[in-house]
Amino acid sequence: MTSNEPPPYSSGSGQPYGYDPYSGQPYPPPQEYGGAYPPPMPPAPSGPAGYGYGYGYGYPPPPPQDDRVRNQAIGVLVTNIVATLLCCSPLAIAGIVMGAMAMGRAETQPDSARSLIKWGWGMAIGSAVLVIALFVALIVIGVASDPSVS
User: How far apart are the C-alpha atoms of 3 and 33, rounded to whole Å?
Assistant: First the structure.
């Protein structure tokens, strides 16, 4: 061995591999453990076969839900409430009832709720058309009854 070669079993820092850098003492030789090295640790159990790791503690997350029907029912309800407050239309009152019924059926009977939502939107549109038609009729009647217009 020449002077420029590292010592055998060296870590590259000049200290042998068995040297503890924190205590400054060499590690005990493997024979003091009763054999070459301690036996390897067994793998950690992963639970029953086929179950994987699961969710950990507590309940699993809820299944994803489709909230589109519920959101559409809320939209119908709010639209018809606004139409009732602004226009006092009896069609909008029927639309409020249909929107409330759709809200109640959104979780349990989504097909029935979709049908009620369609009818609720129809009531809101019919209410708007009725109010516009009445407004135009009032303007036409007002213009026709003015004696200065000939």
Answer: 34
Residue 37's pLDDT is 59
Helix (H) or strand (E) holding 74: helix 68-87
| HSE-CB of 131 using CA atoms within 13 angstroms | 16
**CB environment 92-115: b (16+ within 10 A), e (fewer):** bebbbebbbbbbebbeeebeebbe
Q: Is 72 exposed, middle or buried (0-12, 13-18, 19+ CB in 10 A)?
A: buried
Helix (H, G, I), strand (E, B) or coil at 19: strand
Q: Is 126 exposed, middle or buried (0-12, 13-18, 19+ CB in 10 A)?
A: middle
Average pLDDT in the chain:
77
Give pLDDT tens digits for 85-141. Answer: 988 888 899 999 999 999 999 888 989 999 999 999 999 999 999 999 999 999 999
Q: How far is CA 40 from the centre of its chain?
A: 44
The pTM assigned to this predicted structure is: 0.54
Give residue limits of the domains in the chain: 68-145
